[in-house]
């Protein structure tokens, strides 16, 4: 975990669980259920949907949508699922675009927060191709300080891989982190931090920006 994020993650999950009992808005309830699993919760749901999207249409019909929610163990009854689906199926086509769905589900962030997240992403993305890989990290992140490297448990590459896995989703760790995954992760962290100023300071410290 990055400095400071583990604690924020826990705080955010606790906060989300607390707010769940207070809200009746179905989309907000789904958002909070995801966040109750930590910063990667929304991204994890996205991965479940992607796996279900057999024909690569990047859309889901209602049956797939419900199956995805069940596979991800979301506590949602059929009526609530129908209501959420209707909200996202704006044109009434019977399918929803899941990228759009995930963006809407993500806690809203100010431009100031998005900008500092992108600064961190660009710093890590040494090759500038829009994806962070082990190759990129070799140039920015010193694995030799990692306790598991020091005691001989892990190689340098294993340290890098574990680092990338923080931002990757729990079901499909491919060792590559896209802008979207990085944003999704920090949207989760961001939800636990009240002010932009504090969020920006945390990011600057964590990434030495």
Q: Using only CA atoms, what is the Rg?
A: 18 Å
Biggest β-sheet: strands ordered side by side in the sheet:
1-2
How confident overall, as mean pLDDT? 85
Alpha-beta content class: mainly alpha
Shape: globular
- H/E topology pattern: HHHEHHEHHEHHHEHH
Bin the helical content: 55-70%
Domain EF-hand: 40-75, 76-111, 112-147
Keywords: Calcium, Metal-binding, Repeat
InterPro entries: Ca-bind (IPR051581), EF-hand-dom_pair (IPR011992), EF_Hand_1_Ca_BS (IPR018247), EF_hand_dom (IPR002048)
GO molecular function, one term: calcium ion binding
What can be said about this structure in brief?
With 209 residues, the chain is mainly α. The chain is built from 12 helices and 4 strands.
Key attributes of the depicted protein:
209 residues, mainly alpha, Recoverin, domain 1, 2 domains, two-stranded antiparallel sheet, two-stranded antiparallel ribbon, 12 helices, 4 strands, 5% strand, globular, metal-binding, calcium ion binding, EF-hand-dom_pair
């Amino acid at each position: 975990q990055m400095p400071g994020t583990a604690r924020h993650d826990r705080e955010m999950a606790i906060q989300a669980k607390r707010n769940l009992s207070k809200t009746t808005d179905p989309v907000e309830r789904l958002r909070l259920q995801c966040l109750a699993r930590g910063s990667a919760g929304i991204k994890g749901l996205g991965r479940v949907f992607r796996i279900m999207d057999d024909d690569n249409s990047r859309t889901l019909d209602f049956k797939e949508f419900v199956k995805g929610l069940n596979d991800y163990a979301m506590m949602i009854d059929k009526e609530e699922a129908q209501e959420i689906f209707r909200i996202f199926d704006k044109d009434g086509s019977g399918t929803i675009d899941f990228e759009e769905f995930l963006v809407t589900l993500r806690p809203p962030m100010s431009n100031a927060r998005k900008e500092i997240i992108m600064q961190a992403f660009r710093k890590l993305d040494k090759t500038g191709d829009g994806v962070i890989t082990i190759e990129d990290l070799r140039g920015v992140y010193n694995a030799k300080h990692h306790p598991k490297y020091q005691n001989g448990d892990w190689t340098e590459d294993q340290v890098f891989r574990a680092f990338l896995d923080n931002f990757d989703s729990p079901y499909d760790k491919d060792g590559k982190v896209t802008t979207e995954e990085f944003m999704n992760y920090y949207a989760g962290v961001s939800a636990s931090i009240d002010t932009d100023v504090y969020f920006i300071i945390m990011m600057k410290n964590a990434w030495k920006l």
